Amino acid sequence: MNLSDLDSTGFVWSKKMMKMQIGVIALLVALSVVEFGLASPNTVPAFLWSPHLQAANGELDEAVNYQVMSAKDLVGSVFTHGGWSNFLCSEKKVEQPVDVALVFIGRELQSSDVSSKRNSDPSLVNTLNGLYTSSNFSLAFPYISAPEEERMESLLLSGLKEACPHNVGVSNIVFSDSCFVEDGTIQKLSDLQSFKDHLLARRETRKEGETDLVVLCSESSESHSERESISELVSSVEQSGSKYTALYVSDPYWYTSYKTLQRFLAESATGNSSSVGVSTTCDELCKFKSSLLEGILVGIVFLLILISGLCCMAGIDTPTRFETPQDS
C-alpha cells in the first residue's frame, strides 16, 4: 500500500464515521419528534350505532374504520355508510325508517381514552361500548381529527344540506342551548328533562315515516355527566317505543379553548386563583405545551452535539506524507 492509498483510505473511513454519527443523531431526533407527535391530543373517537337498522345482508354489522379522517369526512361517512341520508332526505327512498336520529357531542373524550385502560372517564367508555356492541348496526371511527375552525354541530348541519341538496326530509330539528348554531329557526331546548318531554310529545304527533333530528351538546355541569345524559336520553327513546339511530362524537377543541380563556382571565386578575375557583392542575393543553417545550429542548441538545462533532472531525488533519523508516 502506497502513501496515496493510505491517505485515501483514512479519508474514506473518516467520511463513513461522520455519516454514521449524523445518521444516529437524525434517528434520535426523529424518535423524539414521533414521541411528541403521539403525545399530542389531536384525535377524537366517534361511534355510530342503531338497534333497529340492519346491514344489507341481514347480518350483524360491526365495522371499525382505523383511518385518520377529518370531522367533515366523518359527517359524510355517517350520511353515506351509516345510511342517514336514506331517512333524512325526502327525495330518497326509505327502506329502514327510524323515528329519531340522536347526536351526542362530547367535550372531553379522546382517542387515547378508548384504547388505554387508564382513561379520563371509564364509565362513559363502558356505556358507549355497551351500546355499540349490543346494537344490530354499528360503526366506529377511533381517530377523527378534532375540528379547530368549525364546531361539530355546524359541520353536521352543513353535511345535512350537502347530503340532501333538493329537500331535507327531517320533520323536526332540535338542538340544546349549549350547541352553537347560527340558524335562528332551529328549536333549542335548555336541559335534559326538556328533551325527554319533547320526545314524549313528538311520539304522539309524529307522522309515519317522519324522522326527528335531536342534537345534544355536552357542557360542564354538576347535575348530569356525559354518561348520564346519554343513558337517560337513550332509555327515554327506548321506553317510548321509537326506533332510533345514534351518533357520539367528541369535540374537545372549543371546550379546551374555554378553559384556556378561563385560566388566562384568572391569571390576569389581581387575586389568587383559588378565589375565582379555577383548578391549578395541568390539563390537556398544559400537557401539550410541556411536550412541545420538551421536544424543542431535546432537539436543541442534539443539534449542539451534531455541530460539536462536525467541528471536531473537521479539525482532524490526516498526514499527506509518512517518512520512510531508516534501515538500522
Give the key terms.
328 residues; alpha/beta; eight-stranded mixed beta sheet; 16% strand; transmembrane helix; V-type proton ATPase subunit S1/VOA1 transmembrane domain-containing protein
How would you concisely characterize the structure shown here?
InterPro entries: VAS1/VOA1_TM. This protein has 10 helices and 8 strands. It is of the alpha/beta class.
Outline the structure in words.
Keywords: Membrane, Transmembrane, Transmembrane helix. With 328 residues, this protein is an alpha/beta fold. It is built from ten helices and eight strands. It has an eight-stranded mixed beta sheet with strand order 2-4-1-8-3-7-5-6, with helices on both faces.
- How many extended strands? 8
Identify low-pLDDT runs.
1-13, 29-40, 256-262, 272-278
Strand order of the largest sheet: 2-4-1-8-3-7-5-6
Separate helix tally: 10
| Average predicted local confidence, pLDDT | 75
The amount of helix comes to 40-55%
- Based on CA inertia axes, which overall geometry fits? elongated
- How far apart the termini lie comes to 22 Å
Backbone CA Rg: 30 Å
Structural class: alpha/beta
Question: Beta-strand percentage?
Answer: 15-25%
Encode the helix/strand succession as letters: HEEHHEHHEHEEHEHEHH
Major beta-sheet overview = 8 strands, mixed
Subcellular location: Membrane
Protein name: V-type proton ATPase subunit S1/VOA1 transmembrane domain-containing protein
Main location: membrane
Pfam family, one: Ac45-VOA1_TM
